[in-house]
Amino acid sequence: MHSKYFENIVIYLSVLLGCIILGVLARMFAISVGADEFTANIVFVAVTLFGILVYGLLSIFIKDLFTLIKQRFFPKEKQVIEPIKKSNDSTRIDKIRTEQKQLIADQENNKKAIALQYTQTVFAPYTSDKDLALLSRNITSYAEKKPTNEIQSVEVKKLNSIDLYHFGWNIWNHFRIGNQLQIAAFLKRVFPSILGNVETETIKRHLKDDEQRGIIQIRKDLSEE
């Protein structure tokens, strides 16, 4: 910025000096042809101002002429810059989209991890290692909205229907996938030995009954101990 300012000062001083020199030469010529001092001074001032005026007009004209020539013979310059800008915008948007997808995936994975930890903690005392692994896979399938034919039955001990109702509500409330009728159908398929003879609609109606009753109780947040 300071360099540009200095350059402008040098240019303007050079022009002014050149115009003054022309004025001096014009004054000397006027005196040589017999003009008096007053007339010679008028000639000096007139020629100097005329030189400055001519420089200003030429500067404007040349600048406009340069712009016109540039637009006339190099019209593609703007068209080259614009696609680059659009390409940069597209790249930036793709980056944002990728980051958001990764964020959503991380959130979903974190939700699954919390649900699996809760499930394994609650059911570990009441089922075998094999059935606990099956139950964990069932929860993963439910979270990923996989077909119900991937759901496998699990056997549990000492737990009754109200425990399983509360477990179903806790899982549904954690993921908020589909409606409560779907989690009721999930429970019926996973625990057929206890809920096989209970209607899906009945399971749905009793998911949140007696919240603090039973071994498995209603939990508002599975991440809390």
**What structural class do helix, strand and pairing data support?**
mainly alpha
Largest sheet data: none
Q: What is the approximate shape?
A: rod-shaped
Oligomer: single chain
Bin the helical content: over 70%
> pLDDT under 50 segments (min length 5)?
none
SS summary, helix count: 8
What string gives the helices and strands in order?
HHHHHHHH
Can you offer a commentary on this structure?
The chain has helices spanning 2-32, 37-73, 77-123, 129-143, 161-175, 180-190, 192-195, 200-205. The model has no long low-confidence stretch (mean pLDDT 84). The protein is mainly alpha-helical. The chain is built from 8 helices and no strands. The longest helix has 47 residues, at 77-123. Helix 3 (77-123) packs antiparallel against helix 5 (161-175) and helix 5 crosses helix 6 (180-190).
Q: How are the SSEs placed, and which strands pair?
A:
Elements: H1 2-32, H2 37-73, H3 77-123, H4 129-143, H5 161-175, H6 180-190, H7 192-195, H8 200-205
Helix pairs in contact: 1-2, 3-4, 3-5, 5-6
